[in-house]
């Protein structure tokens, strides 16, 4: 299951961001996955539930967004949407296209949890 290795790498990258921003942890990781990326979203979600605890983020949630497949036609120059098994120009139906998006996995955003505010000054008891 290469999704586990992907999650470990994703969480390593998230750890660097947490440390750079002096945050306490991660609330949510949002990734964008293209249908041609080779990453299976259900397997990634399952692997994330295993990897997050080992990485020190037991409460982190994973949100997966799907990016569209887009191609640019080499013949007519049109950029259009395409399907997984039909990478054809949406305008002239040519198969001579360049893939613009749909094969990526992107760390889109991270929602960090902040360090708790420190108390400034002595505690006093009323009354």
Provide a concise account of the structure shown.
Helices cover 26% and strands 28% of the residues.
How does this structure look, described?
This protein is an alpha+beta fold and 127 residues long. It has a domain at 2-68 and 102-113: hypothetical protein PF0899 fold (2-Layer Sandwich). It contains 2 helices and 6 strands. The protein has helices spanning 2-20, 41-54; strands spanning 25-33, 61-66, 70-73, 79-81, 97-101, 105-113. The strands form 2 sheets. A 3-stranded mixed β-sheet has the order 2-1-6, with helices on one face. A hairpin with a 5-residue loop joins strand 3 (70-73) and strand 4 (79-81). Helix 1 packs across helix 2. The longest helix is centred in the N-terminal third of the chain and has 19 residues, at 2-20. The chain is elongated and about 55 Å long. Residues 117-127 have low confidence and may be disordered.
């Amino acid at each position: 299951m290469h999704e586990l290795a992907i999650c470990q790498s994703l969480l390593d990258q998230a750890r660097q961001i947490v440390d750079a921003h002096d945050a306490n942890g991660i609330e949510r990781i949002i990734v964008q996955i293209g249908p041609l990326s080779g990453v299976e979203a259900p397997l990634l979600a399952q692997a994330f539930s295993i990897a997050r605890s080992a990485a020190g983020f037991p409460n982190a949630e994973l949100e997966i967004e799907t990016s569209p497949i887009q191609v640019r036609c080499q013949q007519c120059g049109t950029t259009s949407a395409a399907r997984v098994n039909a990478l054809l120009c949406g305008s002239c139906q040519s198969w001579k296209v360049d893939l613009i998006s749909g094969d990526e996995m992107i760390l889109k955003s991270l929602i960090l949890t902040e360090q708790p505010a420190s108390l400034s000054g002595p505690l006093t008891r009323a009354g």
